[in-house]
Write a structure and sequence with these properties.
10 helices; Rossmann fold; Elongation Factor Tu (Ef-tu), domain 3; six-stranded antiparallel barrel; single chain; about 325 residues; alpha/beta; 2 domains
C-alpha cells in the first residue's frame, strides 16, 4: 500500500483502475464505489487506486462555511485501504491546484500520472476548475485517451440518497443510529483523557473520564450509549456531551463512564463509538437528582448494548 502526495513522482503501474472523490466519511455510497473498483481490478489484473484531496476543497474554496469533516485524514486513509484500495493519490488542494482545468486533470493525472485503464466514479462526480468536470467529460476524454468509464449509482437509506452532507446532518442532529446505518459502522471520535473537575466519582458516585478530542464533528449534546475502545479492549459505556448545566458551567465537555471499570485512565487515548442516543442533557435541581438519573442512564445503556450488534471501526 502507498500514499502518493508528490505528483511529480512517477506512479509506475502499468494498468490502474481509478476512482476520484473527497470520500469524507467513507459511507456506504463510497464503499459501493470502492467495491466496484476492487472487483474491476481483480477482473482485469489491474491496480485499484483512489484519488482524493487534502484539505477538503470546501475548506480551501469556501472557508467561511467552516465545514466539519466526518473522518480525520488518518481514518479516511485506513478505511480506504480497508476497502481493498491498493494506493491513494492524495492531492494537496491549494488555490493553485483549484485552478486546474478539468481536461488538464484528466490528461495530466488520470492518464499521464496514473495511466488509468478504467475510471469508476459516483453519479455526482465533479472535478476541475469551477467543478466543470463530470461523467460526460470523463466518457468523452476516455474515448480520446483509451480508458473506460463506469458510473456507480448512489446508495440509499429509507429511500433517500446517502451522502456526506446527510451523514453530517444526522450526526449533528443526534440521529446516531441512522448515522451507523449510512456508515455501516458506529460513528466515533478519538480523545485523550484529561483531568476533569472530579465531580463524577466524588459527588455522583460515578467515575468518569473526560477527553479532549481533535475530531471536528461531534454529535448533538446529550447522553449516549457507547462502546469505548482502549487499545485492543472494548467496553460498554455512557457518554455525556454537553455543558454540565446542573453545575452552572458553560464549557463543552466530553465525559465517559465505562461500565464496570475502575482503572485510572489519565493520559490514555480512547475511541468512543456512539451506539444510540438516550436523552437530551438537562439541568437538575441538585447533584443527587443528577446522580439518580445517571444511574438510570447506565441501566438504559446496558440494555441497549446487550442487544446491539453495530460494527465498530477499531
Amino acid at each position: 500500500m502507498a500514499i502518493t502526495e508528490d505528483l511529480m513522482d512517477q506512479f509506475g503501474r502499468a494498468k490502474t483502475i481509478v476512482t476520484i472523490g473527497n470520500f469524507d466519511g467513507i459511507h456506504k455510497g463510497h464503499q459501493k464505489i470502492f467495491a466496484a473498483v476492487v472487483t474491476r481490478a481483480r477482473e482485469t489484473d489491474g491496480s485499484p487506486v483512489a484519488v482524493t484531496f487534502s484539505p477538503h476543497p470546501v475548506k480551501t474554496l469556501l472557508p467561511d462555511r467552516s465545514l466539519r469533516l466526518i473522518t480525520s485524514e488518518h481514518d479516511k486513509e485506513r478505511l480506504i485501504f480497508g476497502a481493498g484500495i491498493r494506493d491513494i493519490v492524495n492531492i494537496d488542494f491549494n488555490e493553485e491546484f483549484a485552478r486546474t482545468d478539468s481536461e488538464d486533470f484528466i490528461r495530466d493525472i488520470l492518464v499521464g500520472l496514473l495511466k488509468a485503464k478504467w475510471v469508476i466514479v459516483g453519479h455526482n462526480c465533479r472535478f476541475g476548475r469551477a467543478r466543470k468536470g463530470n461523467t460526460d467529460l470523463l466518457r468523452s476524454m476516455g474515448r480520446k485517451y483509451g480508458f473506460r468509464v463506469s458510473v456507480i449509482r448512489y446508495a440509499k437509506l429509507h429511500g433517500d440518497i446517502i451522502s456526506s452532507s446527510r451523514v453530517r446532518s444526522s450526526i449533528v442532529g443526534g440521529r446516531i443510529s441512522e448515522t451507523a446505518l449510512m456508515l455501516g459502522r458506529a460513528y466515533h471520535i478519538d480523545g485523550r483523557v484529561v483531568k476533569g473537575a472530579g465531580r463524577g466519582a466524588a459527588l455522583l458516585g460515578v467515575p468518569t473520564a473526560n477527553i479532549e478530542t481533535e475530531n471536528e464533528l461531534i454529535p448533538k449534546e446529550g447522553v449516549y450509549a457507547v462502546r469505548i475502545s482502549l487499545g485492543d479492549n472494548v467496553y460498554g459505556g455512557v457518554a455525556n456531551i454537553g455543558r454540565n448545566p446542573t453545575f452552572g458551567r458553560d464549557v463543552m465537555s466530553y465525559e465517559m463512564h465505562i461500565l464496570d471499570f475502575r482503572r485510572n485512565l489519565l493520559g490514555k487515548r480512547l475511541r468512543v463509538h456512539f451506539i444510540e442516543r438516550i436523552r437530551d442533557e438537562k439541568k437538575f435541581g441538585c447533584p443527587e437528582a443528577l446522580g439518580s438519573r445517571i444511574n438510570k442512564d447506565i441501566e438504559t445503556a446496558r440494555s441497549i448494548l446487550a442487544g446491539n450488534r453495530t460494527g465498530l471501526y477499531l
